[in-house]
Write a structure and sequence with these properties.
alpha/beta, FAD/NAD(P)-binding domain, Polyamine Oxidase, Chain A, domain 2, protoporphyrinogen ix oxidase, domain 3, 3 domains, seven-stranded mixed β-sheet, five-stranded parallel β-sheet, 15 helices, 25 strands, about 30% helix, oxidoreductase, flavoprotein, FAD/NAD-bd_sf
């Protein structure tokens, strides 16, 4: 059995954070021996890479190894090209600020990596909802589709009269969680959920409102619902508590694509990057952890002081089962939705609605759930092809994606034409990107289950990523940074 040990690249670290001792002291023949701290990051998505960068800042002399089972870093941050135009194959952008008005963790990482000059923002072009054979403007003043005043929705959706009455107590008890759809249906009726909330949540999570946790997907509304007696009051309170500045860009991306963030983070971390070498088992040792790596016929091991586990819930649970069975059971049941992205390069001059894109309610029955008019939403060279990115599939619809790429691309073009009310010409180029099991589905009670799981983790092991702390680049970056801080604290305590 071979042992995988390699030196990390030497890089400097920020001096703005307290530094964990990067060595441990051992004895050898009566002499004191200084041993560099070694940390394994399992998973090379943006959460794992953010953890590696944070580890470098907190413990600049440590040795960091990022193990990524696939052949590429970045996870769902993957920049592609179509007909000479840059088109993201995964996440398209990130929130610039949080609800508290502070810059998001994604922006913080962009600045840490010196990429702030590359920040770009989408044009201010409206979006729409597609249903009933028409494109309706996205209503203003909602919170992820939940209105503060349902009467203002016009014929877009009608609320059940009298259902949102003040019952003399908060909508939610302290610590309670419910499905978003359950709360909104009870207070506003089915039409608001089906026509507004479902497509809005589906655009982010590819899930259904009746199965997604309010606490995870809409934390500001959940907090307000523990105080307010009506849903309309809770929405107004959540909106009033938001400190986002009107007029400032909501979303950002990087000129040249989000893969730049991946490459810059890998470089700044100074980590040794190991691609295509799966981590199959974890075991405790006297000083930390032993990783069993590689294929069964040719196993390797690596000894480290701490681990950041930044992979999906099921592989995390499998690795944790021998060392923390209770934690494995708590996280292993998280479900995922599969989606496919189809990019179409339509001939120059193809006419599209004056929109950034649209969302489609599940009630429409289409495989298409969302579309982005890339060349209208983002600055792109004039006179080139018209690029549209189409998202297909929702939770529970995996069998509807079981066609070859050519069939999916043609289905996307055909449905897109029906939804905008005009047949589209044959594309000059296409690609299909499949994300099988790519989007976590947070059932009610997720936060409570996760807190219990983290409390049961052995020292020196931390969880990070979308499976645990939310989808979106800012959530994943913040999750990775927190995990790095946790393992650094554990190493400091053990020193």
């Amino acid at each position: 059995m071979r042992r995988a040990r390699a030196r990390a690249k030497s890089t400097g670290g920020s001096n703005s954070h307290p530094q964990t001792p990067a060595v441990r002291v051992g004895a050898s023949g009566g002499r004191l021996v200084l041993v560099r701290k070694r940390v394994a990051v399992i998973g090379g998505g943006i959460a794992g890479l953010a953890a590696a960068v944070r580890l470098r800042d907190l413990a600049p002399d440590s040795e960091i190894i990022v193990y990524e089972q696939s052949g590429a870093l970045g996870g769902k941050l993957r920049t592609g090209e179509l007909a000479g135009v840059t088109v993201e194959r995964g996440a398209e952008s990130f929130l610039m600020t949080g609800s508290d008005g502070a810059e998001s963790a994604a922006v913080g990482l962009v600045k840490r990596l010196g990429l702030q000059e590359a920040l770009v923002h989408p044009r201010r072009v409206p979006a729409a909802l597609a249903f009933g054979g028409r494109l309706a403007p996205m209503p203003a003043g909602t919170l992820v589709g939940v209105p503060s005043d349902p009467a203002a929705l016009g014929d877009l959706a009608h609320a059940e009269p009298g259902h949102d009455a003040d019952g003399g107590r908060p909508l939610l008890g302290e610590g309670d969680d419910v499905a978003v759809g359950e709360l909104v249906r009870e207070r506003y009726g089915a039409e608001v959920v089906d026509r507004l909330v479902d497509p809005m949540l589906g655009g982010v999570y590819a899930g259904r409102a009746d199965r997604l946790s309010l606490e995870v997907t809409m934390p500001q509304l959940a907090a307000a619902a523990r105080v307010e007696h009506t849903l309309s009051g809770a929405v107004r309170a959540a909106q009033a508590a938001s400190k986002r500045v009107p007029g400032q860009p909501v979303f950002g991306a990087l000129e040249g694509g989000l893969s730049r963030l991946v490459g810059a983070a890998a470089t700044a971390s100074g980590a040794r990057i190991s691609l295509g070498l799966p981590v199959r088992e974890l075991a405790r040792t006297a000083h930390g952890w032993r990783l069993l790596l590689g294929p069964v016929p040719a196993p390797q091991t690596d000894d480290v002081d701490a681990i950041v586990l930044a992979v999906q819930a099921k592989p995390s649970a499998r690795l944790l089962a021998p060392v923390a069975p209770g934690v494995a059971e708590a996280i292993g049941g998280l479900g995922y939705a599969s989606v496919a992205l189809v990019a179409l390069a339509l001939p120059p001059g193809t006419s599209l609605p004056d929109l950034s894109g649209f969302l489609v309610p599940p009630s429409e029955g289409t495989l298409v759930k969302a579309a982005t008019f890339v060349t209208r939403k983002w600055e792109r060279p004039a006179g080139g092809p018209v690029i549209v990115r189409v998202s297909l599939g929702r939770a529970g619809e995996e069998e509807r994606l079981q066609f070859d790429d050519a069939v999916l691309a043609e289905r996307a073009r055909h449905e897109l034409g029906e939804l905008i009310g005009a047949a589209l010409p044959a594309p000059v180029a296409t690609w299909v990107q499949r994300w099988g099991g790519g989007l976590p589905q947070y059932a009610p009670g997720h936060r409570e289950r996760l807190a219990a799981a983290r409390a049961g983790l052995p020292p020196g092991l931390a969880l990070a990523g979308a499976a645990f702390d939310g989808v979106g680049i800012p959530a994943c970056v913040a999750s990775g940074e927190r995990a790095a801080e946790d393992v650094c604290k554990a190493m400091e305590d053990a020193a």
